[in-house]
Amino acid sequence: MSESLLLERPHGVDAPTPRTRTIRIALAGCGTVGGALLQLLRERAGAIEATHGLHVEVVGILVRDASRPRAPGVASDLLTDDVDAFLTVDCDVVIEAIGGLEPAHRIACHALAAGRSFITANKALVAAHGEELERIARERNASFFYEAAVAGGVPVVRVLRDSLPHTGIRSIRGILNGTTNYILTRMGNGVSLAAALAEAQAQGFAEADPSRDLDGRDAADKIAILAWQAFGISPSALQVERTGLLPEPEEIVRTADAFGGTVRLVAECLRTPGGVTASVEPVVVARESELARTPAEENLIVIDTEAAGTIRLSGPGAGGSATASAILADLLHAAAGRPAPAGTAPDRAPGSHAFRNTPDPRRHRWAIRVEGTRDIRAAAQFAAERAGIELYEPVGAWRHGAYHALTPPISRTLAGGFARALEAAGARAVVLRYVVEGLGLRA
């Protein structure tokens, strides 16, 4: 694979001056994100040189199939589908946008061990191997950047590191998956899951295989990374209570609608007296809430702190352009020699290495939808009695042949037992965390 200048300067932009420095990058992945990054670098080449004195030269691109036709401007002699050949490319920075754990992990270890800057958009890689990669970076005086791995173009990793290091972070909560948020927004407007997913894929907001989005794994990886930044707990060690939209997202949407609310897939981590707890789950929220008003592929992150109050960050959380903008920001930081994000919290518990993982100690109200038995209400009441709880019925508890009720504040463990008791009685049940107030409840 030969070196070749990929990024031509726009018409009218002068050649590099002696004060312009060239940085050579090797890019793993030329799909939605990698392709968007190359386009962004082409479009902004002149501005990057003028503002940062930097000329970006792409010297190698790893793809799955080097014979496949590519967009104009992608030089064929830069392409390879051989990982070993890609690893031999002489460069300053390696950017990874292929996803998955392998060969991404191998590429990351090789780049950092060689003392190069490594930039990734791969949340699964950071969640599984972040501490290891950070250790290699320290040992080899290299830099490990991963802003693009969480929330697309929203700079939450850098905010946690640079702006809020000693503010006493209590919790991080919000929408971290643009794919599911787009799907839930469209389904709330009456569009089917299949149609909403097809729209998201057509617009570049969803992968061809969206299973990691729909089952909550993608958001779980992201909240683990943020917990690492905020509390110093290893992302691979954090146990995230995870409930996705599968297998029946339509029932989840119907349940929220029956209670006059909206459903959002909410990711959360918080500090408790016993440690750090984290979850990803569908939650019924009020239609006028900031979560419900976060539409389509948008992300919202709400950070609650002791010293700085509540910080809100929002922006596009899916799509190639948003993620590419975060990669470019990391590239500019790497070129300037600025430090990469540290994976430990500066204000963790005094005298402890890091917070430990703990189950959620809180009590929540849960919205239930029950159908599929001859006497639905009796089955629900029987299950509630066995769990030792008293159900509350909202106005209009019966809708579309299903029975709806609310629990009092109970633990996750008790809510899970209640759901299993309903299933044992032959009912089909949806049990969702409920954070809405004032919907005309009655005993």
Written account of the structure:
34% of the residues lie in helices and 23% in strands. By secondary structure, it is α/β, with parallel strands linked by helices. It folds into three domains: 21-149, Rossmann fold; 156-316, Dihydrodipicolinate Reductase, domain 2 (2-Layer Sandwich); 365-442, Alpha-Beta Plaits. Strands 7, 8, 9, 10, 11, 12, 13, 15, 16 and 17 form a ten-stranded mixed β-sheet that branches. It has a six-stranded parallel β-sheet with strand order 3-2-1-4-5-6, sandwiched between helices. Strands 14-18 form a two-stranded antiparallel ribbon. A hairpin with a 2-residue loop joins β9 and β10 (275-286).
Secondary structure: helix percent: 25-40%
Computed structural class: alpha/beta
Q: In the CATH hierarchy, what is the architecture of the largest domain at level 2?
A: 2-Layer Sandwich
Report the uncertain regions.
Answer: 1-6, 8-13, 348-353, 438-443
- The total count of helices amounts to 14
Q: What's the CATH H-level homologous superfamily of the largest domain?
A: Dihydrodipicolinate Reductase, domain 2
Q: What is the CATH topology classification name of the largest domain?
A: Dihydrodipicolinate Reductase, domain 2
Net shape? elongated
CATH class of the largest domain: Alpha Beta
DSSP strand content: 15-25%
Between the first and last Cα atoms, what is the distance in angstroms?
72 Å
Radius of gyration: 24 Å
Number of domains: 3
Task: Outline the biggest β-sheet.
Answer: 10 strands, mixed
Number of β-strand runs? 18
The average pLDDT score comes to 89
